[in-house]
Amino acid sequence: MSPKTLYDKIWDAHVVHEAEDGTCLLYIDRHLVHEVTSPQAFEGLRMTGRKVRAPDKTIAVPDHNVPTTPGRENPDQMPEESRIQVAALDQNARDFGIHYYPVSDIRQGIVHIVGPEQGWTLPGMTVVCGDSHTATHGAFGALAHGIGTSEVEHVLATQTLIQKKSKNMKVEITGKLRPGVTAKDITLSVIGATGTAGGTGYVIEYCGEAIRDLSMEGRMTVCNMAIEGGARAGLIAPDEKTFAYVNGRPHAPKGAQWEAAMTWWKTLRSDDDAHWDKVVTLKGEDISPVVTWGTSPEDVLPITGVVPAPEDFKGGKVEAARRSLDYMGLTPGQKLTDIEIDTVFIGSCTNGRIEDLRAAAEIVKGKKIKVKRAMVVPGSGLVRAQAEEEGLADIFKEAGFEWRLAGCSMCLAMNPDQLAPGERCAATSNRNFEGRQGYKGRTHLMSPAMAAAAALTGHLTDVRRITG
Ligand SMILES: CC(C)[C@H](C(=O)O)[C@@H](O)C(=O)O
Ligand code: SF4
Q: Which residues does [4Fe-4S] cluster bind (predicted)?
């Protein structure tokens, strides 16, 4: 048998039919659903009198539109458009009999945090969702990617998806990370090195010592941003950490089924002599705590750097940089650490997990914020409860942070948590394009520890310079 990558293995195990031109019908193990990309898909089923093919493998949760302030069960708290989307999900979940976590349920949260938390996401699976950051689930050694609304309808109706296979790309992070450097710095640095189109046409497997050393939370952060690097999906071979994280979760297999699953899961690694169409290698020790300065995730630099000049770039990038700098209100040569921040947002499916909140709380403990507003938005109700139990919520509140309810929140301007024009934000989310966090809002992406450091000083800050 010819050697295979992990992606090849999962792909082959899910092909139902292959057409002559290589187009495949893939079986889908998990379909995650949120309120933004699903209403028309359910409507399509209704109009043609079809059912959801596998309601037991279909999991819905509202996250993008939900307010993150108390009393949000009251629909009057939402603007009309949000109310319609959330009400439609409520109704569709009931009508089609799929698993559902409404806002009143403590398990509600961002779909990419809820899936793994509840044990829906397992190694070797195919996982789809009408959402580009579905790549997050690849951290478990699953083939997970976003799909469009018409594909959502197709998966609801058939539990399959029409796909062409991508090429194999390996991103290896060798050796150890330095203190203050996190999974977010890895994933941003990879995009900085490859560009936002570097992964186009590929599924990325992240590997190497620095990846193996990451917790499951960190691995989810890395895979979450595979899509920002242009890749179809990102994944990491499962290991003992993966199995330990999954074991005992509500929807993970139990007993004999667990044993059977483990037998397969242990084979889920790329063969030593597998073929890679593209390889990128970064040394862990070369990665610094980074921030973005522009309006693309590839506009990333070590925090010790200065704002670049348009002339530093080539071709079309010169004009793009000029526009970015203008939008961001920055001057070439300005030290990144001199950039003043109005708002800090800690949350999102990139960095809204318990470990992220722990990392931020460790920086914040016993100190006060200097920014106008700062908020921590746990990625799920369960993350929130755990953070409260661990005393993290008190640390944040005493420092002056708002302690919110779970949702996508200020990651994107689809709910009441938005930036005002010109407002500058240190954010732990994954996208920084124009208007992403609100009309004319300015976003700098970074790790939770770096965002916490910015909250304390009022400007972008090297977390390594914050002392206890
Ligand atoms: C609204 C949704 C379709 C979108 C996505 O696909 O990623 C959102 O989650 C985002 O992060 O921009
Ligand atoms: S937290 Fe942000 S990136 Fe993640 S699903 Fe929500 S809007 Fe998309």
A: 349, 408, 411
